[in-house]
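WP5 quarterly update. Target: ROK family transcriptional regulator. Source organism: Kiloniella antarctica. Length: 409 aa.
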Amino acid sequence: MATENSDSPKNGGFRTGMLGTNLEHAKEHNLRAVIDAVRRHGALTRAEITRTTALSVQTISNLVAELEQRGLLIAGEAEKAKRGQPARPYRLNPDGGYSVGIQMDHQLALAILVNLAGEECAQIQQPVSRPSPDEGIDILTNLVDQLLESAKVKKKRVFGVGVAIPGPFDVSGPTGIGPGWVGFPLEERLRERTDLPVIVENDANAAAIAERLHGAGKKFENFVYVFIGMGLGAGLFLNGQVYHGVRGAAGEIGHIVVETDGISCECGNKGCFERYVSLRAAYEAIGETDDAHRTPEQLEKLYDEEDPAFMAWLRNAADKLRLGVQALESTFDPEVIFIGGLLPTKIAQALVEKMLPPLPSVVTQLKPLDERILVGISATSAPAHGAASVPIFYEFNAELYKHSNKLKS
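Structure tokens (predicted):
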């Protein structure tokens, strides 16, 4: 499935799912529509794919046969039918392709390899110390090479490389990686070095994409993923597509003021959201200011011990998040809001529990929601897993995101 090269994939997009077209020149689009339908539903028979994509029976027969031949779909055992011949359900072949995900901040570079089902096949990490862009490119290139070599996966089987960085910019300085990264052509340089398609996303969008492909977000077309890292951001899924905004800064909720005359922030305001809800805020609450000693596992230990300072932060963060959730609901009218990110899962769960019951909002008064707040994918490697989902997601949504890539046979 070749796609055209373009300047940027971040152009928004509002579709409720991929419908096919019976125009002959749209074959590649139709192949993606079939893949997307099977991915969202887990397994579908040819008749079900036909109904989902609105394509003709003959067209679906041809497309499914081709995707089987490419190794992207595999057929299950025939199911008993009330009438006619037994139907065989088709699902994605986990080994039909692979993707690399990378997360990097000023301390650590982590790379993982996942298969088409999102299952981790290999992982490599390397400590870093505020690398320059040139140093960073060398590090990332070596990680990709080592990862594929250790997993014995050839590049022709790889959809691409996703890179998750902590936000498109950082108001306190160049970026969350180190000096000199603002304006650096990371996608282009890494693509040249690895000879693979490369897509850079901020960590919140990357994690939201992983939630959409492999988590509870599969069943929702419209949701907000609140990403708690060193800062605070949000990934927005509107009508089944990630929304970036005009300047790529959609979801930068960390600098929304939630407390007048509150804690000072580097952006120049006081009382910004992320000064209360972030790993940084948690570390400051327990008196830990040395980056070298900061780890999410440290917070998990304090939670298990019911450390007074940490528990006070947890309660305050939950109170601020209740306000944030109400604002996000009233602004976007999502089906659900996920809370996730770099927090250990048990802390994310505790945070959500302390937010309940959520504040009433206009949205819930109009249409009560059974599931307003859910725990999203939460782990120290969440950005890397999200980044690995990015090339796969964009490949199967190619009418919105066109990169020079192929589904490999």
